[in-house]
Write a structure and sequence with these properties.
CATH architecture: Sandwich
Number of domains: 1
Bound molecules: copper (II) ion
Number of helices: 1
Number of strands: 10
Structural class: mainly beta
CATH topology: Immunoglobulin-like
Oligomer: single chain
Radius of gyration: 15 Å
C-alpha cells in the first residue's frame, strides 16, 4: 500500500503546481503490456503545446527510467536509439506512435498490466512538469467503439 500512498502524494503535489500547464495537451497516452521479467516497455502519446517547447523526458514510479526513443530502419533492421529531447513546435500536435518516436519504461519494477494505468510525470523544458496517465493496452483505443 505504500506505493499507492506515494502516488497520492505525487498527485497532490502536481495539482498544487500544475496551474500553468493548461497550455500543453496530452492525448491518447498508452503503453504496451509487458510480461513478468521483461525489463522494458514501450509507450506512446500525442502532445500539443501552445507555445514552442521541448519534451525532455519524465519519471514514473513503475520503472527506474523513463526515456525518449526513436526508431528507424537501418538497412533491413529496425534500429532504436535514445533521444535527448523531442521538439514541440507551437500549436502542432506531435505524435509518438509505433514505428517512430516513442517513450520507454526501462527497468520495470513490475509488469505493465493490461487495463491498468501508469502514472508518469513528463518534463518539459519550459512548461515544467506535467502529470499524465498511460493506459496499458495492446493497441490505441479506437474512438467510439463499444463492445
Ligand atoms: Cu525504445
Amino acid at each position: 500500500m505504500s506505493a499507492l500512498r506515494s502516488l497520492f502524494v505525487a498527485a497532490a503535489l502536481c495539482a498544487a503546481t500544475g496551474a500553468s500547464l493548461a497550455q500543453v495537451k496530452v492525448e491518447a497516452a498508452w503503453a504496451r503490456p509487458t510480461v513478468p521479467g521483461q525489463q522494458g516497455g514501450g509507450g506512446y502519446l500525442s502532445i500539443t503545446s501552445a507555445a514552442a517547447d521541448r519534451l525532455l523526458g519524465g519519471s514514473t514510479p513503475v520503472a527506474e527510467r523513463f526515456e525518449l526513443h526513436t526508431m528507424s530502419m537501418k538497412g533491413d533492421v529496425m534500429e532504436m536509439r535514445q533521444v535527448e529531447s523531442i521538439a514541440l513546435p507551437a500549436g502542432k500536435k506531435v505524435e509518438l506512435k509505433p514505428g517512430g518516436l516513442h517513450v520507454m519504461f526501462i527497468g520495470l519494477k513490475e509488469p505493465l498490466k493490461l487495463g491498468s494505468k501508469v502514472p508518469v510525470t513528463l518534463k518539459l523544458e519550459k512548461g515544467g512538469e506535467l502529470k499524465v496517465e498511460f493506459e496499458v493496452m495492446s493497441r490505441p483505443a479506437a474512438p467510439a467503439h463499444n463492445h
